[in-house]
Amino acid sequence: IEFTNRLLTFVLVVVALATFLLVVRLRQTRPALFWIALSVGLGIPVQAIIGGVSVLVRLNPYVVGLHFVVSAVIVALCSIFVVLLFSRTAEGRPSRGVMWVAALTVFLQVVTVLFGVITTGSGPHAGDALAPRNGLSSELLQHLHSYPAYGALAFVAILAICARLQRRRFLFRVTLVLIAVNALQVALGITQSRLGLPVGLVAAHMFLACCVVALTFATLASFRARH
Fold first, then answer.
1. Reduced to 3 states, what is the DSSP secondary structure of residue 59?
2. Are 123 and 133 in contact (CB under 8 A)?
3. pLDDT one-digit tens code per residue, 52-97
4. What is the residue-wise DSSP string for 94-131?
């Protein structure tokens, strides 16, 4: 797995470099794309360094958790980049109410992911059999992880209703997908907990967490996009 991860890092470097070179000429007309591409390009070597440190500290759960968080940040930036890249015209600034709902949604999603990282660090899949755990209560963390997830799901539903009422078509479509992914993520989290955290379900849960991050930040980017 580690070897495959390293190979994919080189692929990401090539893609990030190619993307950056393509948007350099757009620096004046579309500066957001330039700075996002630059940030992603710089984030990949930072990830490589954190990955190396995690091996040196024998998969310390906090370092491994940081590794995942930085990955999530890169995913969020890439999601924003794609939405902005393929946007045609702005739909206009959303109402203050929609902005507040969106902000609370993002906050709850971020809190959910962070608690999920800490929860994973306390469980059996924080690393190999010899890797240290963070020593925190997995049962307590599972509850702290689930509460903001339920709140995020509720606020995404509210955001979808607001998008529908204000005829923000792309935002409405993204939030519908996000509702489905969030609901699946909640169901998967409950299932894996009751089944004793089988590794396959935990891996799927982490994959869906990245999907949630991508879709959540796509909703923010959609405030400037019309599809």
1. coil
2. yes
3. 898 888 888 899 999 999 999 999 999 999 999 887 655 667 788 8
4. PPHHHHHHHHHHHHHHHHHHHHHHHHHHHSTTSSSTTS
CA angle 140, 101, 224 (to 5 degrees): 125
What pTM was computed for the model?
0.89
Q: Collect all residues with Cβ–Cβ distance below 8 Å to 154 and sequence separation of at least 6.
A: none
Domain ranges of the chain: 91-224
Cα distance between residue 34 and residue 27, in whole Å: 5
Structure tokens at 165: 């009422």
> The tokens of 130 are what?
């010899």
Task: Retrieve residue 119's tokens.
Answer: 């929860």
Q: What is the pLDDT of residue 91?
A: 61
Alpha-helical (H) ranges within the chain are 2-23, 31-56, 61-85, 96-122, 138-165, 169-194, 199-221
Q: Which amino acid is at 120?
A: T
Q: What gap in Å lies between CA 174 and CA 194, rounded to an integer?
A: 30
| Separation of alpha carbons 82 and 86, rounded Å | 6
Contact 20, 38 (CB under 8 A): yes
Smallest CA-to-CA distance from 221 within 98, 76, 119, 108 is with 76
